[in-house]
Amino acid sequence: MKKDNLIIASKLLDDFNNFLDKRSAVFLTWSDKMFDRVLEWHFEIWKKEYEYLLLGQDKKLDEWSMYSELSRTLDSIFRQIEIHALKERTSFPFFDKLKKHAEKYKKESVSSRSYMESLFNLVWG
Prior knowledge:
- By secondary structure, the chain is mostly helical.
- The chain has 6 helices and 2 strands; from the N terminus they run αααααββα.
- The protein has a two-stranded antiparallel ribbon.
- Helix 3 (34-54) packs antiparallel against helix 4 (61-87).
- The longest helix has 27 residues, at 61-87.
- The relative contact order is 0.16.
């Protein structure tokens, strides 16, 4: 992803994150593919972050830093959706979508870093 696109994505996700508490869990978990997209973005950004970090692409420290920031924002969005789903008693669609996402990416890793380990540390950590 180009640096300008990473900057724009970071600002948009940060804005979404800042106003997430004003959203209903129904919108966050039941609506058409919203949570699915957050999960997909979470995987893609996680993968890029660890590719830069673990596979020796240290010459691209700016890109790694931007992916790391995006990853933290997506982690925050994920946690807020999880909290909304549990508080508003709409956890079934949350965990159903999480299960499907985990099944899809259960064998994904970068070097020795497992995506499932990172994902479940986020959920249960």
